[in-house]
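Question (not urgent): is this output format expected?
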Amino acid sequence: NGVLTVEDMQQRAPAMFSDTKAERLTDRYAAFRTADLLPIMADYDYFPVQAAQKRPTKNSPTKAEHKTHMVAFSKADDQGDGSTRGEIIVYNSHDGSSALRLFAGAYRFICSNGIVAGEGMQQRIYHTTKSIAGFEQSLRSTIEALPSVLQQFEVARNINLDGMQQYELAKQAVMKRWGAWDDSIVDVDGRPIKGSYAVDKTIRDALGVQRSEDNLSDAFTVWNRIQENVLRGNVMIKSITNNNVGMRKARPVTAVAEHVRINRELFDLLPA
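Got this back:
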């Protein structure tokens, strides 16, 4: 919950401090060093509290210092309402794969869940000198959007979901990560198509309670349980490989881009 030091950020997301860009990019691409945002964010009383970046893979042409990374900022003394704190999330890379993006978001203390707002809650800044000059305006727009995100949480806390409504919400949520399994998922030769699929047990597992404080039926708590279970892999899924068709425990989402994508799409399912 504390403010990250420079050393913390260098360890968790070293690409933040890169002064270079991928060699294949032309001079039209203006590298925008994420670390240069720190003093600007501090001027608005926002400081880094989380940082992560995509891990380099053996066959990837992208160097570690150019990888996609994210940093979450909050006000240093902001404990929110005691359960949820507003955050500004910065998403960037130096390999040309993504614009710099700003999201309104939140952090839920009880489960250490980061929440990224969905459609209409992001600012996109392309890597050009002209666009970068407008960063502060984009930041102000994101800060202005933050109260509406937190207000959605308050509305959801006052909505009670019955068992069927909870099941339907969980069903929609798991489909944001996995396709639905049915007997028609076969190739032209009648063999099951390789992949990971959601089944009825996946949906029911997504509603699982990880701590007693979350054993409630209001929409915000139910939605948070689902979000946590889907992103952290606390569910069983059907897995089809060359050698096996069976159930297995899902893996947690670790890729930054996929984490942001699923998180935003789940946010759009929040009852309000």
